Prior knowledge:
By secondary structure, this protein is of the alpha+beta class. It folds into three domains: 7-67 and 105-178 and 288-367, FAD/NAD(P)-binding domain; 180-284, D-Amino Acid Oxidase, Chain A, domain 2 (2-Layer Sandwich), CATH 3.30.9.90; 380-432, no CATH class. The chain is built from 14 helices and 20 strands. The protein has helices at residues 16-25, 61-64, 106-120, 194-200, 253-262, 264-270, 319-339, 344-347, 349-356, 359-365, 370-373, 381-394, 404-415, 419-432; strands at residues 7-10, 30-34, 48-50, 69-79, 84-90, 101-103, 123-126, 130-136, 139-145, 148-151, 154-157, 182-191, 207-215, 224-230, 234-242, 274-284, 295-296, 299-301, 310-311, 316-317. Strands 3, 4, 5, 6, 12, 13, 14, 15 and 16 form a nine-stranded mixed β-sheet that branches. α1 (16-25) runs parallel beside α3 (106-120), α1 runs parallel beside α7 (319-339) and α7 packs antiparallel against α9. It is globular. Flavin-adenine dinucleotide (FAD) binds at residues 10-16, 33-36, 39, 42-44, 47-50, 129-130, 158-160, 164-165, 185, 187, 238, 281, 283, 303-305, 309, 316-320, 322.
Amino acid sequence: MADDFDVIVVGAGMAGSPAAIRLAQGGARVLLLERSPEAGAKNLSGGVLWGRDLDRILPDWTAQMPLERHIVRKRFGFLTKDGALSVDFDDERWKRAPFAAHSVLRARTDAWLAKKAEEAGATVVTGVPVDGLLWEGTGAQGVLQGGEPMTAPITIVADGTNSRVTLGTPIRPAKRLEWNATELGIKETYRLPAERIEERFQLGPDEGHAEEWVAGMLPPGVMGGGFLYTNADTLSIGLIVNIGSMYGQTTPSHELIERFRMHPTIAARLKDAELVEYGAKLISSGWASRPAAFSGDGWMVTGDAAGFVFSNGIVIQGMNYAIRSGLEAAETALAASSAGDASASRLSEYGRRLEATGILHDFREFEKLDRVKWNPRFYGVHPNLAIELFHAMLSESGEPKRHLRELVRAARAASGDSRRDLARDTLDLVRYS
Ligand SMILES: Cc1cc2nc3c(=O)[nH]c(=O)nc-3n(C[C@H](O)[C@H](O)[C@H](O)COP(=O)(O)OP(=O)(O)OC[C@H]3O[C@@H](n4cnc5c(N)ncnc54)[C@H](O)[C@@H]3O)c2cc1C
């Protein structure tokens, strides 16, 4: 019996829609299935889209896509209960096209990308949660939706973090969510007129500012990072928290984001802004959340479903990897379709493409980053030591000035940091970041 489609794509996010666009451009009969009533409706809005991966399918995307602001400044640092220490990175090159990064609101971008897929010739159906993959022997032959089979020789899985359609299959044999491979994202959006944003963050029209913080003001033991991004007339703020570090402590997630929002450094940026949206979402945790394989008989896994999210305290990047992996899966599917061969060995080209485009390199290379990223001392004693040190160096006490080594010793004593931990963690930072 003939298949319903050449390729089925599950999920119209940053991986799925670009994959469907490329497939339709390449002449494939492609079905893009999305569970939300409209693409983007369930994606936590906000974030910074880095890079130019969409150039490959939509050469004029920066002029057409509903983008918020192009990022011209990045600030990163850490917050403690009483202080903040940060570095500002301003780059004149970021002020000129082609821009390095854009702030985006996903409800807008994802709806636009899904529309582009439709215009390119894909069949896009929203409001349809896929139940799972349609397995025949060792391979996928399409999907099950509402208990009904929809068949295609190739299925591209792009359903995001903790991909439910692959849970309990050979792709992701564990039947439950993998908490150690998942982080919690909590996000709020605030409305503030464009002129106020530009005045407050010293930006020109359309220019954007992005900041990421090691969130040292969370309850002891809870590890997480905060962010703030400027959109056209809103601000996105949020926290990404290590779920394991939340076990056994009682602060609910809305109080965690409150601590971030109420920190004097962040509160000043939010002055007079009005809360318009709140949400929480799981995030894949890079290499630790990768599936058993990236491709097999009749299937490929892309984006967050494949664990392709990189965050190290200075950057959060997942959308760029989602687009790139979606496009590589689409190229692989086009070549396989024209060869009439969707076998595991044919689709293993996807893995080679992930290597060639550097995606696997990035995640393998930084596999041990978690040792730094999820080291509790980087959220507690080390930031406290730095704040104590700067406080002592920059305040005028009226007493005789002291040498730096004495100030460091005093700051170590005040923060409870030890010389050994500091040396060991600095070494790890250099080695694994
Ligand atoms: C708080 C937060 C902040 C972030 N900040 C950034 C940032 O600044 N920069 C950055 O690059 N990345 C950021 N990320 C990560 C980024 O959002 C993801 O890496 C990216 O969205 C992954 O794209 P995706 O297409 O794989 O998954 P998603 O964008 O999650 O898309 C998956 C799609 O599949 C649909 N779906 C799910 N299940 C089914 C089903 N059963 N049937 C049909 N459809 C289904 C979903 O509704 C969704 O539309 C952030 C994430 C969070 C949570």
